[in-house]
Amino acid sequence: MTTSLVTPGTEIGTVGEHQAGEGTTTVGNRIVATTTGYMRIDDGHIIVDASKSIVNIEVGDTVLCQFEKLQEKGGEARILVVEGKQGDVLPHQLQGHFHVTRIVDRFLHTVSDAVRRRDVARAVVTEVAPVVRLDFRERDDCGVLHAICPSCGDTLQAHVNGDWNVACPSCTYEGYRALADNFAAGWAELEQGASTLNLSGKRWGKDAEQLFAKGSSGRATYIAADVREDGRERTYFRFEGQGGGGGRGRKAAPGCRLFVGGLPREVDTEKLRELFGKHGDMTDCIVMTDDSGASRGFGFVTYTDKAHADAAIKELDGHRLHGRRIGVRDADNKEKRSKGPAKGLKLYVGNLPFDVDEKAITAFFGDKASITEIAIATDKGGKPKGFAFVFIDEKDKGEEVVKALNGQELNGRRLKVDISQSGGKKKGQGGKSARELKAISEEKRKKQRR
Fold first, then answer.
1. Same CATH topology for 3-51 and 245-339?
2. Span of 111-125, 133-147, 223-237, 364-378 with lowest mean pLDDT
3. 3-state secondary structure the chain
4. Which CATH architecture has domain 345-449?
5. 371-423 pLDDT, tens per residue?
6. Where are the domains of the chain?
7. What is the pLDDT of residues 315-329, one digit of tens each?
8. Does residue 130 have a cis peptide bond before it, meaning omega lies within 30 degrees of 0?
9. Confidence of residue 302 (pLDDT cuts 50, 70, 90)
10. Third-level CATH fold of 3-51
11. Mean pLDDT lowest for which of 11-20, 66-75, 101-110, 201-210?
């Protein structure tokens, strides 16, 4: 007889020379191992003795398990041990499934009312196909054997207080578990055992019903201050540009956070930081972008000191950047936000080539007017829609500028230029000029044709 360690799929003999025994199979004229173990030849048979025994769970077996997945009306528990049997559980039998009605003899709104993740319990196997199904209420020795406090992690102890039958010795947590007789070991020595604390068949009291009525959020627990807190100041990680997001980061001091508007599209966060970094230390700087990554024309800058923010407003508000005047103001000042900086006279420029940019529009206006801002209309995908709005300083010379530029060609297209101001002329619906309404109407017709 010879022995050697083999793994599944290893060729260990040839049909004719030997016969396939336990732990092997034949593939053609070859004999291969089907398990990991030690091979031996006994009376012409090749046998593989498994190095570890395998347990095949059967109906009626008692198992120890740990809860892993809890849903409203059911869950899964990982089977750790089959009592009375030695060996490893088969992979397809590692997870045991259970229904909320098979936990304890009381009405449960949800599974988490009686068990929690990481609780260790004993159960009886009621089915093995197509999945293993567990029952925790069939016997008094079935149920939770060990549980930890969801607030601080200490081991829970059996303690009756109204509907609650477990309590934490380290914090104020109290709760309910579907207990087995020998919960926390010592209870098995009593005449009745810990299962009597489940109050089987009884209705929930007022306090429990009030908690259950709040839904799943009402069952949530939080870290106990006297266990996990040591008095040190909390610090939070913060992504750049998210200083005020979600209420998780620290809010900037009043006057330190600035709004920057009228930014050219080629100015990104790095260029904005370079421009504003000259006026003081910043904690945050970002240019806002759309889904395609294109600049939305504005951003935010946060300084460590209000004096630095005031200096930046004084120096950079109205500053020309790539042919455009940018606006800088206190982002938290609602009064200034509502009024907004004066941009100048608003002109409508239509029939634009789709490849035109702000530089081309600035060159088209030339010395006819001083441009303070250009807004090229785009769709949700960032593609130009063929018109734009241009703001100029010369409010009293609008008619002259329109007369000089209307009908002029740019890249082979004859442009339409008209005044689109807030007052002084009759407007169409919604406060829009006739040119704006016409452009919107043309856009709708194009979509309908498509």
1. no
2. 223-237
3. CCEEEECCCCEEEEECCEEECCCEEEECCEEEECCCEEEEEECCEEEEEECCCEECCCCCCEEEEEEEEECCCEEEEEEEEECCCCCEECHHHCEEEEEHHHCCCCCCCCHHHCCCCCCEEEEEEEECCCCEEEECCCCCCCEEEECECCCCCCECEEEEECCEEEECCCCCCEECCCECCCCCCHHHHCCCCHHHHHCCCCCCCHHHHHHHHCCHHHHCCCCCHHHHCCCCCCCCCCCCCCCCHHHCCCCCCCCCEEEEECCCCCCCHHHHHHHHHHHCCEEEEEEEECCCCCEEEEEEEEECCHHHHHHHHHHHCCCEECCEECEEEECCCHHHHHHCCCCCEEEEEECCCCCCCHHHHHHHHCCCCCEEEEEEEECCCCCEEEEEEEEECCHHHHHHHHHHHCCCEECCEECEEEECCCCCCCCCHHHCCHHHHHHHHHHHHHHHHC
4. 2-Layer Sandwich (3.30)
5. 888 888 887 767 888 888 888 888 788 888 888 899 989 888 899 999 885 54
6. 3-51, 57-228, 245-339, 345-449
7. 998 888 887 888 899
8. yes
9. very high
10. OB fold (Dihydrolipoamide Acetyltransferase, E2P) (2.40.50)
11. 201-210
* Structure confidence by residue, pLDDT tens digits, 221-245: 444 444 444 555 555 545 444 444 4
Instruction: Encode 114-161 in three state secondary structure.
Output: CCCCCCEEEEEEEECCCCEEEECCCCCCCEEEECECCCCCCECEEEEE
Query: Residue 54: CB partners within 8 Å, gap ≥ 6?
Result: 87, 88, 90
4/128 Cα distance (integer angstroms): 35
Q: So what's the pLDDT on residue 366?
A: 85
Can you identify the CATH homologous superfamily of domain 245-339?
RRM (RNA recognition motif) domain (3.30.70.330)
Q: Is the pLDDT of residue 282 over 70?
A: yes
CATH superfamily assigned to domain 57-228: Nucleic acid-binding proteins (2.40.50.140)
Residues 6+ apart with CB under 8 A from 45: 18, 19, 20, 21
Closest alpha carbon to 158 in 135, 188, 133: 188
Query: Residues of the chain with pLDDT > 70: what percent?
Result: 81
